[in-house]
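From the methods appendix. Each design record in this collection lists the tokenized structure first, followed by the designed amino acid sequence. Records were kept in a plain field format so they could be parsed without special tools. The example shown here is representative of the layout used throughout.

RECORD:
FOLD TOKENS (480 positions):
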């Protein structure tokens, strides 16, 4: 139903009467009205005031949030007490214990007063707008009528809860109860915010436009659904990496083999020779127990540890080349999003995986948009600016570089993974080449069906990680 201008004041009063937050109305309603106006103004006019009020103040107060029952339980009638307590227990209580709500509260608490209202309204929209669209028969209202009602706020806020309750007729009270029941039924279980929601809330002021916000949400959401590298694969990559030294021009200057330290753990082949002196010693003093056996049982024997080449500990560098980005702004009918979004999500996944496997000082990633055709340059600059937001900390710590190149000579050689709409080019030095022009991506002789979604992207990332870790780049024919 659509609330008419004459109906809106009664509906708002009925919603205010249902709030589950004990915040004084004189302090709470002005901010609630601003959030509601922002949400209705952007099209979320199906969101009811009482849910906006309660979630908004929970995001502001965090663990200091107080339930309405702490102040108003005595004035509730027997008929309404059960419903109100159930709302506090099953909805507000669940939100209050939700760690993502606490994370959002921490992010919002660190903002300036000017940005806090926008962040709270945006967070409410992220959490409630989508789920409540599925609710049955929710009332909608005109934000222009709400602006006029805001002028009446001082009079409404001055009322105490008992007076306000008496101003709401039984008809509107029943209406608000039905609306509330429909909302509660539509609310999904589980956590209120996703990882990409929390990032967006924390960086809301930095996002230049709604389109940029949507683009980043898509990329970060897909990256989150792909997930991190599994522990078993990460362990395998660490072991494989230590078996394959990285190419270096001065490799012959580094030691390999020999011993460099002493430990109480090792194999008998590496036993410190002087330990043999304990064999047969102490057999009479200790009732026939050999000192060598005692030291062995107590893990006191000394062993040499192997000296491994520093090349085996070298940093793993990754270069993800997004070749011809304008051509990758194409959406195949069977895929959920543009090819460029998928390749950028793959780049973020690989960068995060290397960070987990080799640590902050053991990996470095370059993401390069290679612009070869007219139109590529504008797209590349837009995408570089977009990814610079979530990767700002990594760029500042020099773990990630974002680059727009116009030729292959400008692209770093180390760990090149090329995502291109073209077939594999043997004249280009690379570790791996992924052709991304169709729904089935081709990497060597392997095919990845991107219609499989995040699982397919995760499998491709694991295969590329193995190639980066094990192999030297394939050289151009002219270099062979």
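DESIGN:
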């Amino acid at each position: 139903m659509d609330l008419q201008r004459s109906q809106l004041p009664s509906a708002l009063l009925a919603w205010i009467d249902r709030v589950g937050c004990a915040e004084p109305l004189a302090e709470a309603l002005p901010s609630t009205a601003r959030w509601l106006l922002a949400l209705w103004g952007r099209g979320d006019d199906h969101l009811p005031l009482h849910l906006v009020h309660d979630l908004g103040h929970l995001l502001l107060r965090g663990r200091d949030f107080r339930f309405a029952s702490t102040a108003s339980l005595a004035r509730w009638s027997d008929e309404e007490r059960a419903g109100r307590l159930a709302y506090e227990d099953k909805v507000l209580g669940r939100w209050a214990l939700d760690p993502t709500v606490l994370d959002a509260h921490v992010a919002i608490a660190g903002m300036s007063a000017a940005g806090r209202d926008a962040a709270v309204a945006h967070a409410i929209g992220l959490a409630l707008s989508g789920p409540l669209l599925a609710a049955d028969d929710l009332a909608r209202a005109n934000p222009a009528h709400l602006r006029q009602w805001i002028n009446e706020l001082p009079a409404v806020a001055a009322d105490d809860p008992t007076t306000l309750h008496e101003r709401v007729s039984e008809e509107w009270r029943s209406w608000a109860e039905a609306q509330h029941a429909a909302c509660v039924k539509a609310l999904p279980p589980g956590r209120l915010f996703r990882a990409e929601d929390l990032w967006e809330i924390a960086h809301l002021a930095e996002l230049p436009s709604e389109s940029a916000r949507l683009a980043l949400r898509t990329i970060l959401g897909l990256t989150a659904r792909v997930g991190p590298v599994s522990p078993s694969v990460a362990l395998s990559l660490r072991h494989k990496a230590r078996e394959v030294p990285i190419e270096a021009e001065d490799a012959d200057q580094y030691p390999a083999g020999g011993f460099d330290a002493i430990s109480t753990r090792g194999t008998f082949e590496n036993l410190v020779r002087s330990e043999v002196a304990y064999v047969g010693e102490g057999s009479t003093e200790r009732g026939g127990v050999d000192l060598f056996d005692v030291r062995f049982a107590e893990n006191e024997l000394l062993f040499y540890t192997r000296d491994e080449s520093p090349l085996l500990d070298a940093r793993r560098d990754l270069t993800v080349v997004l070749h011809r980005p304008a051509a990758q702004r194409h959406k195949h009918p069977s895929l959920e999003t543009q090819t460029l979004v998928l390749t950028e999500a793959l780049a973020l996944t690989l960068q995060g995986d290397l960070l987990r496997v080799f640590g902050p000082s053991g990996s470095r990633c370059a993401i390069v948009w290679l612009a070869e055709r007219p139109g590529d340059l504008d797209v590349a600059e837009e995408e570089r600016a977009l990814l610079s937001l979530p990767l700002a900390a990594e760029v500042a710590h020099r773990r990630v570089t974002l680059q727009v190149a116009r030729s292959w000579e400008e692209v770093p050689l180390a760990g090149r993974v090329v995502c291109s709409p073209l077939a594999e080019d043997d004249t280009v030095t690379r570790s791996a080449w992924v052709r991304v022009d169709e729904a089935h991506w081709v990497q060597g002789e392997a095919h990845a069906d991107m219609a499989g979604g995040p699982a397919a992207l995760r499998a491709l990332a694991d295969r590329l990680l193995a190639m980066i870790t094990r192999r030297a780049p394939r050289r151009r024919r002219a270099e062979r």
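APPENDIX NOTE: The two ends are 73 Å apart (CA to CA).
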